[in-house]
């Protein structure tokens, strides 16, 4: 029976393989093992020689065996809500970039807002012996949180994680950016400001709605003009149709996410509503597409890059420093308003009773093409 020493058992290398590498690199077998395991004390020149031979011979480490022997897979799980939503690709890319920089891999899954699929994803990752899981779905079932309390795998949540050791929470400061958006619209003399909310089952959507209501009350405006959307473009289109039926429709609309706002822009075009002269529109998220709409979208930025960075570093903190048994970690991501061209002074209207119902917030459609201007022609509001 062949016995493998712990120094090189984690890799898909037979004794002859590792001896051949050592022979060609003119180093000891122990040096080969330490170099492949990226032990920092190995002389850089020796490690370079080892890896040169490894590349020439085409050998690859067996990561599953490594997990069994060393007790760590160097794999982080990443769970997102909907990979087709433009909000998530930058999160995934940033998370993976950081993983590569730190010699980790990622196991990615999308839940498509299905609690059962969420639970299945988490179970599968635990079975794959991932070192930690970032759950960036902005909402999940309470029963699943309870189920995960006793797990040994470090976890990171957005907004919804329990305050217990080993589970890090990223708290999003929705109020800061939404307050800036409301005050910006009020400064433009808007008094009828509507809010298109997200799905009621998402805690993050509820938090954004609450931030809107509080911000409106702070400046003495009514927060009651709220329509429920679904965080999709179709939901934004339907919401604008509903708002346009009102006897006194809004002059400004704040949306729970950018996809909703893009839907509003599309339906406004169909209804001959000029943005921003007839209706000001503000989104939330600041996805990459936001600065390429016509007109470019004013929006509340929730940095996807920063969110992914916080999530990755939180897992790394738990895994590398073993803090899960002693401490609880909470992180904050602050939102802020980015000004573009979808907001303007509120239009001066005649009494609603004197206007035709189909034209209460609509004028003739402009036929000229809007010039985007420089790609970096944005302005961020800070406190």
Fraction in helix: 25-40%
Described by its quaternary structure, the protein is single chain
Q: Point out poorly predicted stretches.
A: 1-15, 351-377
Average pLDDT, rounded to a whole number, is 82
CATH class of the largest domain: Alpha Beta
Number of helices: 12
- The class by helix and strand makeup works out as alpha/beta
CATH architecture of the largest domain: 3-Layer(aba) Sandwich
| Element-level helix/strand string | HHHHEHEHEHEEHEHEHEHEEHEEE
**CATH homologous group name of the largest domain:** Response regulator
Radius of gyration: 27 Å
For the record, the count of structural domains works out to: 3
- Choose one word for the global shape: elongated
From the 3D structure, determine the CATH topology of the largest domain: Rossmann fold
Alpha-carbon distance between the two ends: 69 Å
Strand order across the largest sheet:
7-6-8-9-10-12-13
Main beta sheet, described? 7 strands, mixed
What's the β-strand tally?
13
